[in-house]
Amino acid sequence: GKLVHDDWNDCSLVDLNRSGVPLIEIVSEPDMRSSDEVIAYLEKLRLIIQYLGASDCKLNEGSMRADVNLSVREYGAKEFGTRTEMKNLNSFKAIARAIENERERQIDLIEAGEAVIQETRRWDDTKEYSYAMRSKEDAQDYRYFPDPDLVPIIISDEWMAEVKSKEPEFRDEKMARYISEFNLPEYDADIITLYKPLADLFEAAVQKGSAPKEASNWLMGETMRIVKDKGIEPDQVKLTGENFAKFLKLIENDVINKTVSQGSFLKQSLMVA
Q: Is Calcium tagged as a keyword (predicted)?
């Protein structure tokens, strides 16, 4: 489950909607030095997971979350400072703001001669401030013990090689292929592959005979306009690759003009009458 904090009623609720859903936890080394590096890492990680088909990675819905551990140290120091962990971060912008805020908070404490306490803090993005939730000691204070119902899984080199051989084409490889194979400008390839649903639409249309640049123009123009105007995500566009290809064919053959095509595209994209 997860905690939902209701500041209006000054309470925290337990949401069990995610009970039974598998959780993959990825722990990085403490080798990121700025909020920009953290966001770049998370964006790359999100694209890898989306292209694998393991998750849609929507932070606002809880299918991807990030807890941030942060510490500061004096210039030239080799040892890390005392770290804090921040939770309740539900967007990349919130993560960046929380990092900058916590960095300044810890620096202010140290410059004032006070100690940074190892603790867990909850980020309030509306107030742009974090609040202490609980102090955090060493690992033994958590009283961890092996779960007898969770048996060890042996991951062999052979199994890892087999899984790797079945990996899909990731964003970087797909982007390079669009540039070399379809002669798309780097800008077009960058935008389309940034959203896997758009890349899937593009490939489906091209496989049906659509001109790559024409398909790209409609995806970056009309599709992104609809996404922005309607406040939806690219994966909520209902247009299928087959219908997209047919639609582009009608334009190519001058069966429909620009005004009609824009209205038709909107209906197909949102599946409205």
A: no
